[in-house]
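Holo prediction — adenosine monophosphate.
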Amino acid sequence: MIDTVRTVAALRARIAAWRAQAQGDAGATVALVPTMGALHNGHLALVHAARTRAKHVIVSLFVNPTQFGPNEDFTRYPRDEMADARALAAVKADLLYAPGAEEIYGEGFATTVTVGGEVSTDLEGAARPHHFVGVATVVSKLLNQAQADFAFFGEKDYQQLLVVRRLAADLDIPTRIVGVPTVRDVDGLALSSRNAYLSADERKIAPILYRTLRELGAAIEAAQGPTVVLIDRARASLLTAGFASIDYIELRDAETLAPVDSNDRPARLLAAVRLGKTRLIDNLAVTPRC
Ligand code: AMP
């Protein structure tokens, strides 16, 4: 079984012991992998990536209430700490940090972290108001609590990765933020804890999102002019395939998330769609024509 701590004090004591043992040895590096649990191979890929960069890997498990909207799935979000602990032991993570809400948001808690600008206000930020304030606040706390050398985040949540990079740079947090490519099922569906909500029929439709993004990405890479018509066509084909609605499907600058309407710089296709009652997000890199 994996060692588990539930307080900042215990977390810091463990990290201090690792660092003291190493006594300046360059191998005493520590990596943090923040998660909300219900772990799948996407999360475990972050642990593997962390293992290659750091001697000690901590996985945090906290279903952060403040990043869910009032009508979202906080109460029904899948939770299974025992299974998560077993999965982490199998991939040789060193420590599970699973604080309760009272440890993260103690009495009198009154501080939030807001990342401004396009990187957080648009797309997920527009579809889910307050989401990134919740994310930025809890990630700032986790980074500060662990003071790890590296922290690993999935490209699956591409906008979140950019928000975290921004806050770490702006708040002078020295932890290196590392992005890890999205892990997918064999049919292309990006692994997600929320895939558990899909019915058998919806699960058959779900991979069409990534297939559509790939086809759209290839069409944009081959296109000479504006991309808006191609995106409109992709939107229509997703609705025909059975997706209930589309929150957004957009081509954005890969660094700033500013809107992009031709294939002239590194860009990212980002999409959020609804399938039945489940909301799925995915994204894809689009390479400019040389
Ligand atoms: P979550 O538990 O959904 O908050 O995710 C925790 C971390 O795992 C985040 O950095 C996610 O971007 C990352 N993650 C989730 N799904 C995947 C995936 N399919 N591939 C890679 N990383 C992922």
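READOUT: The chain has a mean pLDDT of 96.
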